[in-house]
Write a structure and sequence with these properties.
This protein is mainly alpha-helical and 467 residues long. The protein contains 15 helices and no strands.
Length: 467
Amino acid sequence: MGDNDDRRINRLPLSLCIGWGLGTLGISIMFNTLNILMQRFATDYLGVLAITWGYIYLGAKIYDAVTDPVMGIISDHTRSRWGRRRPYLLLGGALAAMAFFGLFHVSPAAGGNHTVLLLVLLMLLYSTGYTIFNVPYMAMPAEMTSDYHARSHLVSFRVYAIGFGTIAGLSVAPMLIGSLGGGKQGHESMATIYALIILITSFACFFMTRNAKQTIPERNSDLGFSQRVRLIAANKPFLLLIGVKFAQLAGLAINQAALVYFIVHVLGKGYAFLGLYGLIASICLLLAPPLCLYAGYRYDKRAIFIFSSLFYALTMLTWLFSGSEETTSLVLLRGALLGLSGGAMLMMGQAMLPDTIGYDHARSGLNREGVFAGIYTTAEKLAFAFGGALASFTLGFMGYQSSTTGYAEQPDSALVAIYLCMGVLPAVMALLSYIFLLPYNLDERKIKEMGEKSGAIIASSGNGNPG
């Protein structure tokens, strides 16, 4: 039997892959829409200062990050008829949908301090729901399969969902806002529709993963707490991956926060063009998973990641040469290249996580998928906290003018800040991720060797398909 046949046999059922991937769709819609539109909604429709929003966003993300490891421990020790992870898909999805709806229904009529307080409370609710859903969710792939290529195949469905979520947040949302009346009313109507989608996809993920293989909570272990911590600290591939993801996502957060400002104030275009740009970039992001899967049988994940990050950084720097006089086709071409290279970076980072978790099990014999997922998502949240806040502070300190009407004339210094956040800072962060990738050495051969030594990378509970 050839290699291709073996790979086909090792793949998980298509329905299970789709079901797990659906969980990302609603969360990605929420995540992208908030990152792309919420800051401008707060500054240009609620009259909130850019610096003030930066503090709100930073505080919510730090809270989000701090709670992730706690959620990982909770899910690792959960026992239920639905397994360790799946109950939290329902609870987290419901809270996230409520928060998303509320954020775009805040009114400037509440008054300055009251408006800020409402934003703070709703951002904390959003962060809570996101954590409760995402940490257990991200722990599931390491339990579902131990095969090197099957993990990449499974994770590709998450990247597809992220692509569609990016289309919804970056392309469809601005178009919806315009078609539903524009201004604040359009934002409110869009949020109502999207909150319902978030709820439906979270529940669909819960029901469609009922046959997913799961591990069971540990009862007793000879390892003490300090030994467990040392094992995590000694997991060099995991720590390097944390550095990679932090740099990559911080740059993405900076760019996403600046994108709508760049299109409105630098290119002199509206939300319709933002929607077109987002559609092109997202379609190209969706092309990345099959290309990465094809390349993954010829090159290791690290090599693909390195090439993607360097290409992404160089393309980001070309925003410095963009302006209102640039042709539409050139702007869209740049978006397509960023979508493709960014999608490849995303795909490889997601595919490498379960490998590093499997590395821990092979060395320790412990089923700690939730702990590692919690640390990983903590790094993600801190990256977005750092990146999003840095963009807000850069705009604020360089004189960006807030408004309640949707537009205000900006000084030259604010335009310089937009250029910095759009291209220079994201490129620097992508190059930093490249540095972290250089010593990463967990490839297919090493994964197989660990599996042979430990008997199995991920231990089955013997009761892997709870009702």
